[in-house]
Amino acid sequence: RGEVQPLVALASGCQKAGFDVVVVAPGQLLGLFEDFGVVAVDSGVLGDPSSPRAARVQDDAVPGHTGEVDDSVFLSPGVLRIMFEYATDFGPDLVLAGLPCLAAGQAFAERLGVPFMDFSLRLLMPSGLSRSPFGELAGYPACVHRWRWLAFHRRLWRAYGQAQLPVLQALVQSPGVPCGWGHFGAYLLDFADPVAPGLLCMSPLLTALPADTQPALQEAGLKGLLVVTRQEQLTKADEFFGCRIALRTFLDSEPNDPPIYFGFAPPPPAGCLRAAPLSEQVPQFLSRLAVGAAMQTKRRAVVLCGEAGLRSEYLNGWDDLQAYARTRVLFVHSAPHEFLFPRCAVVVHHGGLGTTACSLRAGVPTVVLSSSMEERAQGALIAKLRVGVALDHLADLFARDVAGAIRRCLDNEEMKARCKELAAELQKEDGAKACVDHLDHFFKDKFVTGEWKVANDKRQSEKAALRARGSEGCCSCFSWYRAAFRPRTRGATKQT
Questions:
Q1: 279: burial class by Cβ within 10 Å (0-12, 13-18, 19+)?
Q2: What is the pLDDT of residue 470?
Q3: Which of 257, 396, 443, 496 measures 20 to 30 Å from 416, CA to CA?
């Protein structure tokens, strides 16, 4: 839900500004959009949740990350068909999508003859000045970072080629691979230098675009965090922001003893958790990890059951944990983060994008327990900003490790002051308004004037030239490099 809330905030903001908006989302999230007055349709009507993932291609250049990247772009054929049918019926003037729907969004926009924009909560543009998601050391030469970024994007491109492009080709009735993405260079052109620069929904207080980012994206800039406000979380979507009465009662019972918050995403398989007995299932392990850490720090705790499936019942057989939780721990099925986090002493979570944004806005320290590339990146951000502690490899952690990280946060007055300062600045941002202004500017200055069509026709010619070269040869890596990093001036002001 953390990554969905920014989309809810964006869709709601666009609708209030006068845009007609339709969102295609999983059925379990329709109520969330509808409570905010946004029309949403179920992407899973024809989806088969049991459909196997596309066969993973082993890539020696990126060991250990192939499955993670492949899974990040998987959509079943039924879901893709529903998305295309709704897009065709709605007849949009703009298609907006992010991972895992970049290929689908590009293909649908191309078929309908309208612009496509990427909606991004993370920086994934190739750069020689920043680390790739594979986490090489920051001090490496620019050429190393660039080749690692190319390796990541080639992995992502191949995953799209297996999981989505064949289905999309049939749906849009394309004579060739949709979007021209049969060639890696065409994919890089669209990703690194888009015809319609997308919405980079990140705060300039937290990160910055690398200096070698393409000029069009530099001009578009970072829009700020997208969040569902505290007032909205307290008045809407009970299914997603519920348990308010129980939370208020628990928090107000000891106002001078703010609790520790624990929340996790759906975690890795049980066999990956080396710190747990092999007989334990993952939800049991995480339930005991959270309560054990709270007990060792002698603090109250709020534990989010959520999609990770944590339960107080999983403490059965552990008498000390059970006794502690009976009076000091509250398990909740859902929680309004914007209301809860500022009333906690420390926020402990997995490092999801949306949850990290809320914890940074809360003004309290954060402990990130990561288990994936994306989560490790959020943990690195927290550590870099000096607003919390990052613990990698959730699979290896014990309650004493988490308790130690919590104590480091509680005992660091400088860190707590830094958290409050950063939160005060983040609260001033209005990411939804910045995104709406970006869309208004695009339609008035690029779309209506015909500038977008001229640029799009040029892009199609560039892709056609790539297709005309035929299959990728042994020297193709140099053309990929130029596609991703060659300086461009289309629609950009001179950089100084």
A1: exposed
A2: 63
A3: 396
Question: For residue 458, what are its two tokens?
Answer: 């040029």
pLDDT at 25: 86
Contact 405, 299 (CB under 8 A): no
Could you identify the residue written with the tokens 């250990």?
64
CA distance linking residue 103 with residue 343, whole number of Å: 41
Locus of tokens 């289905």: 167
Question: Using CA atoms in the order 459, 461, 463, 467, what is the torsion angle rounded to 10 degrees?
Answer: 180
Element (H, E) at 302: strand 301-304
Residues of the chain where predicted confidence (pLDDT) is lower than 50: 46-67, 269-272, 278-279, 474-475, 488-496
pTM exceeding 0.70: yes
User: Which helix (H) or strand (E) segment is 330 a member of?
Assistant: strand 329-332
The per-residue b/e assignment along 107-129, b for 16 or more CB within 10 angstroms, e otherwise, is: bbbbbbebbbbbbbbbbbbbbbe
For the chain, helix, strand, coil in percent to 5 are 50, 10, 40
> How far lies 476's CA from each of 107, 141, 462, 470, 479, in Å?
24, 22, 15, 11, 5
Q: What is the pLDDT of residue 496?
A: 29
Structural element, H or E, at residue 369: strand 366-369
pLDDT in the model for residue 439? 96
Half-sphere exposure of 256 (CA within 13 A, CB side): 0
pLDDT at 374: 82
CA-atom Rg of the chain in angstroms: 23
Residue 3: how many other CB atoms lie within 10 Å: 17
Buried/exposed code over 243-277 (b: 16+ C-beta within 10 A; e: otherwise): bbeebeebbeeeeeebbbbbbbbebeebeebeebe
**pLDDT tens-place string over residues 329-344:** 999 988 888 889 999 9
Q: How many CB atoms lie within 10 A of CB 351?
A: 30
Give the N- to C-terminal CA distance of the chain in Å, as an integer. 40
282-297 vs 399-410: helix axis angle to the nearest 10?
Answer: 40
How high is the pLDDT of residue 46? 47
> What is the enclosing helix (H) or strand (E) of 333?
none
Mark 446-482 as b/e (b = at least 16 C-beta within 10 Å): bbeeeebeebbeebeeebeebeeeeeeeeeeeebbbe
The secondary element (H helix, E strand) that includes residue 468 is helix 451-468
